[in-house]
């Protein structure tokens, strides 16, 4: 390793951000080079001085009064709040009984359909699906776009995507990268949100001065698209483009032109398909190998 | 029919966990808030909002993971949300290239440096670079964590760090001069006609 190379990576070495092999090279170089030993010492001093200067500076110290009042306020909120996780476990035993009976019912149903799939004809399945399709998935997507991205008027506050789950953060990156590579997409927000009981993973961008929503939702009771293409739909004054990946529908909703809206979907189609082929996005537990909607339950972190 | 029996102890346990896991990071969070807001009142508001949000989402926090990074992520989201409400302008680090080109050499770090010298030198580092330098060298966050807070690729973090540290070292040569430290590098600078650091 040359001195110049060493000095390029010296701070990463001090931050412990190098690979083990590179660390070994650094150490070998240090053994042989007195000048670089001086440089690394100098940088160490700077880091230490900077850390102590900032941490000791009164400007950066939290005030005791503020800390104490913050503590009191948070404690009050914690005592008053209902934590969803704790709430579940503090319900009385009747809830447990209900849960047990539901599990037994689903279990029996699962066994029944697993062993006798021919009992449910394709027509029956179609009827179930048609019933569920009274409100189309696209209507949900447009509703979420309007209420969340445009009006910010949801019953439940959206959860930032990174906080919802690490898996969502991966997904976010899969959307962000191609759109940021394509010019003029300004990223605004990413979160998970709920519209009329349906969960969406939602990324909001601005493109040509218009708000653009990228929405992912589980197909659940809804059928997948028949062909493997981007479908174009216009609803309620909005342009909607849809394509499916695995068991999810991806919508691009905006008031861009039909061409621009579809182009956005096209940009995302392949990257998202690749992302989903690499890993499943949501934690979906199907009780049946057959995709009968009644027996599919999806858990989404919110 | 199914009457909810909620024990007070559960809420207290939630608070106890939060107090144990999250509250010790309040001072660190405040420092980060000061990097972002630069004014005490605004920084306190940001810490307060961050902690309230963290408390609401605490059931999502996995015990034993990096709580400081989790809280800082929430702080950045909250900060960006506040920025978005204030203005539609996107923050763009347009000075990066210009600054990078003005840094000519690596400065020696004088032993006699005081905390005040370092803070003054830090103030002269452009904000975009200073933020990552502070997050990395003072708060000890990994490059990957910083990239996630700032929503930029890890390469951008590395490049900003490199440039920020270089500018800082450059600023500190002024103090070296004040302390009477004469080096070959300083002589070179003078020969070049006091080329700007």
Descriptive notes:
- The complex is a heterodimer of chains A (302) and B (197).
- By secondary structure, chain A is α+β, with helices and mostly antiparallel strands.
- Chain A has helices spanning 3-14, 20-32, 34-56, 64-80, 84-90, 93-115, 122-132, 137-150, 161-164, 166-181, 258-278, and strands at residues 159-160, 185-195, 198-207, 210-218, 231-235, 238-245, 248-254, 283-286, 296-299.
- In chain A, the strands form two sheets. A seven-stranded antiparallel beta sheet of chain A has the order 1-2-3-4-7-6-5. A two-stranded antiparallel ribbon of chain A has the order 8-9.
- In chain A, strand 3 (198-207) and strand 4 (210-218) form a beta hairpin.
- The model of chain A is unreliable at 85-91, 116-134 and 281-302 (pLDDT under 50).
- By secondary structure, chain B is mostly helical.
- Chain B folds into two domains: 9-86, Rna Polymerase Sigma Factor, Chain: A, CATH 1.10.1740.10; 96-191, Winged helix-like DNA-binding domain superfamily/Winged helix DNA-binding domain (Arc Repressor Mutant, subunit A, Orthogonal Bundle), CATH 1.10.10.
- Chain B is 67% helix and 0% strand.
- Chain B has ten helices and no strands.
- Chain B starts with 7 loop residues before the first helix and ends in a 6-residue tail after the last helix.
- The chains are: A alpha+beta (302), B mainly alpha (197).
- The interface between A and B is large, with 62 and 66 residues.
Brief synopsis:
Chain A is of the alpha+beta class and 302 residues long. Helices cover 53% and strands 20% of the residues of chain A.
List the helices and strands and how they pair.
The complex is a heterodimer of chains A (302) and B (197).
Chain A lengths: L2 H12 L5 H13 L1 H23 L7 H17 L3 H7 L2 H23 L6 H11 L4 H14 L8 E2 H4 L1 H16 L3 E11 L2 E10 L2 E9 L12 E5 L2 E8 L2 E7 L3 H21 L4 E4 L9 E4 L3
Chain B lengths: L7 H14 L4 H12 L2 H17 L10 H20 L9 H7 L12 H9 L3 H12 L4 H8 L3 H25 L5 H8 L6
């Amino acid at each position: 390793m040359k001195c110049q190379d060493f000095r390029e990576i010296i701070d990463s070495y001090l931050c412990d951000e190098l690979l083990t092999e590179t660390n070994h090279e650094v150490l070998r170089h240090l053994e042989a080079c007195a000048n670089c030993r001086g440089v690394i010492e100098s940088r160490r001093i700077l880091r230490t001085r900077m850390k102590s200067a900032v941490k000791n500076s009164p400007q950066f110290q939290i005030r005791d009064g503020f800390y104490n009042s913050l503590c009191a306020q948070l404690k009050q909120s914690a005592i008053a709040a209902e934590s969803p996780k704790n709430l579940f476990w503090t319900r009385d035993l009747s809830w447990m009984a209900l849960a047990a009976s539901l599990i037994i019912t689903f279990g029996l149903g699962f066994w029944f359909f697993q062993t006798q799939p021919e009992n449910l004809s394709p027509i029956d399945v179609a009827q179930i699906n048609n019933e569920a399709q009274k409100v189309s998935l696209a209507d949900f997507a447009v509703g979420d776009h309007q209420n969340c991205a445009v009006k910010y008027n949801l019953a439940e506050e959206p959860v930032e995507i990174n906080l919802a789950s690490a898996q969502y953060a991966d997904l976010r990156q899969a959307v962000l990268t191609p759109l940021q590579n394509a010019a003029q997409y300004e990223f605004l927000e990413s979160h998970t949100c709920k519209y009329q009981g349906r969960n969406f993973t939602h990324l909001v961008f601005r493109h040509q001065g218009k708000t653009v929503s990228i929405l992912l939702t589980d197909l659940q009771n809804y059928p997948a698209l028949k062909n493997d293409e981007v479908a174009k739909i216009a609803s309620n004054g909005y342009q909607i483009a849809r394509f499916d990946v695995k068991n999810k529908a991806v919508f691009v909703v905006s008031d861009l032109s039909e061409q621009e809206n579809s182009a956005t979907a096209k940009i995302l189609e392949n990257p998202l398909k690749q992302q989903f082929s690499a890993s499943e996005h949501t934690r979906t537990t199907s009780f049946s190998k057959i995709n009968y909607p009644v027996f599919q339950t999806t858990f989404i972190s919110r | 029919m199914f009457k909810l029996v909620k024990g007070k102890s559960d809420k207290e346990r939630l608070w106890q966990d939060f107090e144990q896991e999250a509250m010790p990071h309040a001072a660190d969070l405040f420092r980060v808030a000061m990097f972002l807001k630069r004014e005490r009142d605004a920084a306190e508001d940001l810490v307060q909002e961050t902690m309230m949000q963290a408390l609401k989402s605490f059931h999502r926090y996995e015990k034993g993971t990096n709580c400081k990074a989790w809280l800082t992520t929430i702080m950045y989201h909250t900060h960006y949300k506040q920025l978005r409400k204030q203005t539609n302008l996107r923050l763009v680090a347009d000075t990066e290239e210009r600054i990078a080109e003005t840094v000519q050499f690596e400065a020696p770090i004088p032993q006699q440096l005081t905390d005040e010298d370092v803070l003054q030198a830090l103030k002269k580092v452009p904000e975009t670079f200073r933020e990552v330098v502070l997050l990395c060298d003072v708060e000890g966050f990994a490059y990957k964590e910083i990239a996630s807070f700032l929503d930029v690729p890890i390469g951008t973090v590395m490049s900003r760090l490199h440039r920020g540290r270089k500018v800082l070292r450059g600023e500190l040569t002024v103090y070296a001069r004040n302390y009477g430290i004469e080096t070959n590098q300083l002589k070179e600078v003078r020969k070049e006609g006091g080329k700007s650091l």
